[in-house]
Amino acid sequence: MAPDKVQRPAVTLDPAPHFTDRDAPREIRYIIIHTIEGSARSAIGWFKNPASHVSAHYVIAYDGSITQMVDDQDVAWHAGTREHNDHGIGIEHEGYASQDGWTRKQLVASAALGRWLCATYGIQGDRAHILGHEEIAPGRRSDPGPHFPWDRYLAMIRTGRDPRAEPAPPVAGGAAAPAASRDPVEEALARAQGLEERGDDFRAVEGYRRLLNDHDDHPLAARARERLEAILGDPLRRSRVEAEEVEAECRGWASLAESYIAHRRRASAEDFLRRIRDIYPETPHARKAAARLVGLDELEWETDE
Ligand SMILES: [Zn+2]
Q1: How far is the CA of 52 from the centre of ligand 1 (A)?
Q2: Cα separation of 137 and 142, whole Å?
Q3: Residue 128: which CATH number?
Q4: 18 plus 150 within the same structural domain
């Protein structure tokens, strides 16, 4: 891989205050793969929050947009081990370790970035140097989880191409498409439209976005984009969708926190309760999380993390 042949993908800068400044260039040996356990927006908010004391170099959203939050030459606070913080680049991905939510656009963007990092810093693009957070923090972390497509990702880093060929899109048949057609994109579109017709804009938006993030080049993508713009272009519908997104994220973190409490893992429980309290302070969830945080002192903790 000659560095001059590998293009750096476009990134948006949005600096986080949490990093260790290095006077001299550091030796970069690793790429550490993470999942946020939430939205890209929440990760960016959390890393910028003065109270979080965590960060990563990059955050990659489902739609493939890349936000750089710490300079490559500075040490971001993401790995939990000195060696991997000092010599690693941390990449956070929108989504959940327990879910197979990886989108094509997200993987393409992440691998393009990884390919550029390898070429630029001489990182070896193998599994000894491109690592999951769970591998360097066994027992404490479980990201990026069992659904991360390691072989496909490493092949994309090596070759710059996605080995999983997209199925050829069907000829656009319009309204007369045969009923026997089981095109998964067509089914996904019909599902999202059904949700929209039933008034569930929140899940319809999720469905349209997923279709666009996985199958942007499909003839039906234009229809999904049109419906998405119709919903998000309406201020009332848009604000309801956004409120439900916050609601779902807070509920997810609250339930993660409770499961960490049940497993006596205080630091992780606190992490998710603090995210609720500090990222969405105006919500009723934030008040509950703040109360729960205070209550943690009264619980018994077997071990500290
Ligand atoms: Zn992680």
Answers
A1: 14
A2: 8
A3: 3.40.80.10
A4: yes
- pLDDT, residue 151, reads 96
Domain C-terminal end among 233, 253, 269: 233
Domain boundary among 195, 211, 233: 233
Q: Is 199 left (phi over 0), alpha (psi -120 to 50) or beta?
A: left
Q: Are 274 and 288 in contact (CB under 8 A)?
A: no
Tokens of 52: 């979080």
CA of 96 to the centre of ligand 1 (A): 10
Q: What is the spatial distance between Cα 44 and Cα 15, in angstroms, rounded to a whole number?
A: 9
* One domain for residues 227 and 254: no
One domain for residues 37 and 95: yes
List the chain residues with pLDDT less than 70. 1-4, 165-181, 302-305
Q: Which domain holds residue 41?
A: 8-159
Query: What backbone torsions phi and psi does residue 52 show, to the nearest 5 degrees?
Result: -80, -35
Cβ neighbours for 116, distance < 8 A, ≥ 6 positions apart: 6, 7, 8, 9
d(C-alpha 214, C-alpha 106), whole Å: 9
- Say if residue 257 is in the same domain as residue 214: no
- Here the contacts of 211-217 (C-beta below 8 Å, separation 24 or greater) are 211/185, 212/63, 213/62, 213/63, 213/64, 213/103, 213/104, 213/105, 213/106, 214/103, 214/104, 214/105, 215/104, 215/166, 215/185, 215/188, 216/105, 217/166, 217/169
Residues 249 and 274 in one domain: yes
Residue 101 alpha carbon to ligand 1 centre in Å: 16
pTM of the model: 0.89
Number of domains in the chain: 3
305 CA distance to ligand 1 middle (Å): 15
